[in-house]
Design goal:
Layout lengths: L4 H11 L1 H10 L6 E5 L13 E4 L6 E4 L9 H4 L3 E3 L7 H8 L7 E4 L6 H7 L7 E5 L3 H21 L6 E5 L3 H5 L5 E7 L13 H4 L3 H20 L1 E11 L8 H9 L3 E10 L9 E8 L29 E3 L2 H9 L12 E7 L2 E8 L4 E3 L11
Parallel strand pairs: 5-6, 5-8, 6-7, 8-9, 12-13
Antiparallel strand pairs: 1-3, 1-4, 2-3, 9-11, 10-11, 13-14, 14-15
C-alpha cells in the first residue's frame, strides 16, 4: 500500500512499532462486512444472509462471513437492515452509557449522511421525541432522507406502535445554531481527513495531506461549537471521527473540555484496523454543565419532503411479492398482482416488509416506486 510519507512518519510514531505493523498487515486482509438491523427487525428476518457473529458493542449489529450482492436483496431496499461499518456502530454502546437517566425529547445528528448513526439514535428515542437528522451537502441529504424513510417503512411493516418523529434537514450547523432550538442529545460525526478509511476506500489516500488535516480540525471545532450553542444544560454531545491523528481527535476533545466546558462522561475509544475488527473510528461523549438559554430564532431549517412514507396507510391492502416480482418492482417495472387484490392503491411487500405502493388496475399494477430509489445497475 502506497501511503503518504508524512502520514507514515506521524502515524508510526503515534501507534508504536507493534501496532503499526498490525495496521499495515490489515491491508492484506479482507475488509470486514457488517450490518445493523433496523427497528424491530429480528435476526430470523435476515437468516438468508451469511451472518457470522454479533458485533460486541452493537445491540443489533452482525458481522457477515462474506459480502453478498446487497442490491439483489429486497429487504435492504425495504429498510429491514442497513449495511454499516462495525466500528461506527460503537455509537450504540456510547449512547447506552451516556443517555442513561437522560430524558431525550429532542435529538440531532449534525453531520448525518448517509444515515447509519441517525438510525442508531432513533432507537434511543421515545415515540414522542423528535430527531433532526441534518446533512449540509444537498446531494448527500437526499441519500440520508432515503435511508431514514426506508427505515420508517420497516417500522410500519413490523410494528403498529408510533415511532419518533424524524425530520431530515439540509442546513449548515451555523444555521441550526441560529434556528433557536435546544437539543437534549447531539451527535457530531464530523467531516475528517479519513485516515481510518484508507483500507476501505483507497481514494481517500490520495486526498490526504497535513494541510487537509488542519483544515478538518478547524472545521470540526466550528461544528462542535455550533452544536454546543444549542445543547441544553445536562445534555449530551457525542463527538466522532474516522481518523487517527490527535489534531482531529484528542486535541479537539481537549478543546471541547477546556474551551466549551464539556465534561467527559464516556471515555474516548479509538478503533484501528488490525487491532479491531473494523475500520478507523474515534468516539467520545460529553455532558454540558453550563447554562443554555433559548435564543430568538434567526434562521429556518430547510426540511426535505418525504417521498414514500406519507403515502403508506397502515390500513391499506398489502400484496406479498415473490423475489422476482419484488426485484421487478424495485427496478420500476409494472407487475401483476393476485386476482383477489382490490383495484386502486395497494402496498406491496416482500417477506412481510413493505417496499412501496402500486396502482392496481387489474390487468397490471402500475409502479409508484420513486424513480430516484430504483435499482439502476446490477
Amino acid at each position: 500500500m502506497n501511503l503518504p510519507s508524512d502520514f507514515i512518519t506521524y502515524t508510526k510514531q503515534l501507534f508504536g512499532d507493534e501496532l503499526w505493523a498490525k495496521y499495515l498487515a490489515s491491508f492484506e486482509e479482507a475488509t470486514p462486512v457488517s450490518i445493523r438491523l433496523s427497528g424491530n427487525t429480528t435476526r430470523k428476518d435476515v437468516e438468508h444472509l451469511p451472518i457470522d457473529r454479533e458485533i460486541p458493542w452493537s445491540s443489533k449489529g452482525y458481522y457477515l462471513k462474506e459480502r453478498p450482492v446487497f442490491t439483489l436483496d429486497p429487504l435492504l431496499h425495504a429498510g429491514a437492515y442497513y449495511v454499516q461499518e462495525a466500528s461506527s456502530q460503537y455509537l450504540d454502546e456510547v449512547l447506552r452509557k451516556a443517555t442513561e437517566g437522560l430524558e431525550i425529547n429532542y435529538a440531532a445528528d449534525f453531520c448525518a449522511s448517509p444515515g447509519g448513526k441517525s438510525l442508531i439514535i432513533k432507537d434511543y428515542l421515545s415515540e414522542t421525541a423528535t430527531l433532526v437528522s441534518n446533512e449540509f451537502v444537498r446531494k448527500r441529504a437526499w441519500i440520508l432522507a432515503e435511508n431514514m424513510e426506508k427505515s420508517a417503512l420497516a417500522d410500519i411493516s413490523k410494528s403498529k406502535k408510533l415511532e419518533p418523529t424524524v425530520i431530515v434537514t439540509n442546513n449548515s450547523t451555523d444555521e441550526i445554531a441560529r434556528a433557536g432550538y435546544l437539543f437534549d442529545l447531539i451527535v457530531c460525526d464530523v467531516p475528517c481527513s479519513g485516515e481510518g478509511m484508507f483500507r476501505k476506500d483507497h481514494a481517500t489516500i490520495g486526498e490526504w495531506s497535513f494541510d487537509n488535516v488542519m483544515k478538518c480540525a478547524n472545521l470540526q471545532r466550528e461544528i462542535v461549537s455550533n452544536a454546543w450553542a444549542c445543547l441544553r444544560e445536562g445534555g449530551v454531545l457525542v463527538y466522532s471521527t474516522c481518523t487517527f491523528n490527535r489534531y482531529e481527535d484528542e486535541d479537539n476533545m481537549e478543546f471541547i473540555v477546556n474551551e466549551l466546558g464539556g465534561e467527559i462522561i464516556v471515555e474516548p475509544r479509538k478503533f484501528i484496523p488490525g487491532q479491531d475488527c473494523g475500520e478507523g473510528q474515534f468516539m467520545v461523549a460529553f455532558m454540558k454543565k453550563g447554562e443554555c438559554s433559548r435564543k430568538k430564532a434567526k434562521c429556518r431549517l430547510n426540511t426535505l419532503s418525504k417521498t414514500m412514507e406519507d403515502a403508506i396507510d397502515k390500513d391499506m391492502p398489502v400484496c406479498e411479492l415473490s423475489i422476482d416480482d419484488a426485484l421487478n418492482y424495485l427496478r420500476g417495472n409494472s407487475i401483476t398482482l393476485s386476482a383477489e387484490m382490490p383495484k386502486g392503491i395497494v402496498a406491496v411487500s416482500y417477506k412481510g416488509f413493505i417496499l412501496g405502493t402500486v396502482k392496481n388496475i387489474g390487468s397490471r399494477a402500475n409502479n409508484r416506486y420513486p424513480k430516484e430509489w430504483r435499482i439502476k445497475h446490477l
